[in-house]
Structure formats: C-alpha cells, structure tokens
C-alpha cells in the first residue's frame, strides 16, 4: 500500500523543473503591478495652469446658433406687423429674437407705434435705436370702422389685439353661424375674452341684413348641426318633431320640444325663417 502510494505521488526531475518554472512565472505576474508602481511615478496635474488655459477658450453657448446675427445687416423701411422672418434676419435680428416677435404676433399682438417694438423684451436698446428710423406704421388704430360681417382677414388684423390667428377664428365662426347679429358674439370666438372685446368694440360695426337665414321647415339635420348653439340631440329633436307634427309656424311652436330651453331658442332665432 505504501509503495503504491509513493509511486503515485512521485514526480520526475523533468516534471519538477516544469513546476518550478510555472510557479516562478505566476509570482512574476503577481509582482508586475507593484514593480510598475515602484519605477513609474504618475505625473501630477497642475490645475492652476489648467484653469488659466481654460479661461482663454471662448465660452460655449448651446443657443449660440439661435443668437447669431448677420455681420452686415441691410437696413430698409419696413412695417414690423407680420414682417417675414427672413426680412427680420436681413435687418440684423437673431433667430431667437424673431421667434419672440412671431410668438407675440400669434397671440394677437400688433405694433401701433414705433415704441411698441422696443417693448418686446428680446429687442435690445441698441437694436431699437438702429431700427427706429426705418420703422413705418400707418396711423394708430384702424382707418375706419370695420363691419365684422363683411371684413376679410386683412381688415380684421388692423383691429387692436387681433392677429392672423384671431382673424381666421372670427371668419370661421362667422361662417358657421351665418353672420353676427351682435358685437358681443365675438366673445364666443375661442381666445377672445372680455379684455380683447373691449379693445375692439368701438372700432367695429355689423350689418344684420348680412346674416344668412335658414328656413327651419326645410332645414336638414346638417343645416342645424352647424350652429354652435345646438347640440346633436337638439338638432335631431327639431327634425323629428317637425316630421311628427308638421311645419313650425313660429318660434313658440318649438317650445314644446323638451330639450330646447328658451335661452337656446333666443340665440338661434335671428338665423331662422318660418315661411
């Protein structure tokens, strides 16, 4: 037993030499990082010099492109109301400044006198002084009273506080109604509040004869549904009641329709004919 175990554990001289070499290599690999640190010193960075060099570099601005202006602007007479962006660029404004101007216009803003341009926060005093001699504006306010039942968008934008977006909303709402019978109906247009209305009420008029009226006894469901004052169910009820009881003689006949209240009937009355 001992003899067989001894034979199993015994190694040759060649195997012993190989084992010594392997162990030596392992030790050398393990000692290499320590030897590198011993003979190689890391260079210490001088942050004072680094900071000094950094101050010589131009400041990086993520919005630099938006703030860029043309080097040699072209000055010419211009009306700042709805001036195209490329014209503002030629005048020497940056894209960021132009975006602010266009946002002001989209909200219904308008320039009535030269100093209004200076009130735009993105316009610097130097910009205004450079541009002021070239600003040309018509007389303050609209030249005449505007009939809102006939006015196009070009006429409507001359009203104080009314820009292209509001002008288009007024026209769309007018077309849906068939015309305005009261100035105060403008407050039903999305975005036109009491403040906007007070700015323009004295500069507008309306011709009630321009209202497009519908014969209620011949009106289709689609004719009635376009009115913003009527719901789907109310329009359908008017058609169904007429089918069951015959033509309407007057507005009072419609008071028997349960889902129609008097306030709604008074709103649609100017748009309907009964004969």
From TrEMBL:
<keyword id="KW-0812">Transmembrane</keyword>
<dbReference type="InterPro" id="IPR010994">
    <property type="entry name" value="RuvA_2-like"/>
</dbReference>
<feature type="transmembrane region" description="Helical">
    <location>
        <begin position="16"/>
        <end position="36"/>
    </location>
</feature>
<dbReference type="InterPro" id="IPR051675">
    <property type="entry name" value="Endo/Exo/Phosphatase_dom_1"/>
</dbReference>
<keyword id="KW-1133">Transmembrane helix</keyword>
<dbReference type="Pfam" id="PF12836">
    <property type="entry name" value="HHH_3"/>
</dbReference>
<keyword id="KW-0472">Membrane</keyword>
<protein>
    <submittedName>
        <fullName>Helix-hairpin-helix domain-containing protein</fullName>
    </submittedName>
</protein>
């Amino acid at each position: 037993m001992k003899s067989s175990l001894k034979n199993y554990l015994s190694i040759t001289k060649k195997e012993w030499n190989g084992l010594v070499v392997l162990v030596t290599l392992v030790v050398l690999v393990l000692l290499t990082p320590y030897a590198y640190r011993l003979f190689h010193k890391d260079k210490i960075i001088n942050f004072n010099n680094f900071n000094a060099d950094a101050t010589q570099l131009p400041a990086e601005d993520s919005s630099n492109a938006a703030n860029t202006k043309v080097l040699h602007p072209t000055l010419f007479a211009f009306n700042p109301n709805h001036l195209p962006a490329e014209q503002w660029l030629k005048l020497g404004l940056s894209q960021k400044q132009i975006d602010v101007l266009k946002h002001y216009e989209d909200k219904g803003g308008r320039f009535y006198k030269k100093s209004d341009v200076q009130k735009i926060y993105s316009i610097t005093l130097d910009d205004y002084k450079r541009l002021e001699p070239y600003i040309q504006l018509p007389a303050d306010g609209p030249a005449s009273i505007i009939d809102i039942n006939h006015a196009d968008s070009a006429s409507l934008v001359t009203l104080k506080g009314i820009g292209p977006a509001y002008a288009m909303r007024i026209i769309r709402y007018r077309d849906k109604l068939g015309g305005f019978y009261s100035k105060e109906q403008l407050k039903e247009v999305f975005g036109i509040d009491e403040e906007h209305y007070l700015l323009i009420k004295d500069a507008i008029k309306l011709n009630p004869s321009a209202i497009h009226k519908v014969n209620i006894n011949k009106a289709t469901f689609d004719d009635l549904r376009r009115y913003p004052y009527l719901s789907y169910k109310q329009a359908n009820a008017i058609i169904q009641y007429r089918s069951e009881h015959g033509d309407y003689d007057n507005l009072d006949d419609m008071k028997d329709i349960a889902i129609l209240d008097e306030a709604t009937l008074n709103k649609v009355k100017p748009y309907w004919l009964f004969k």
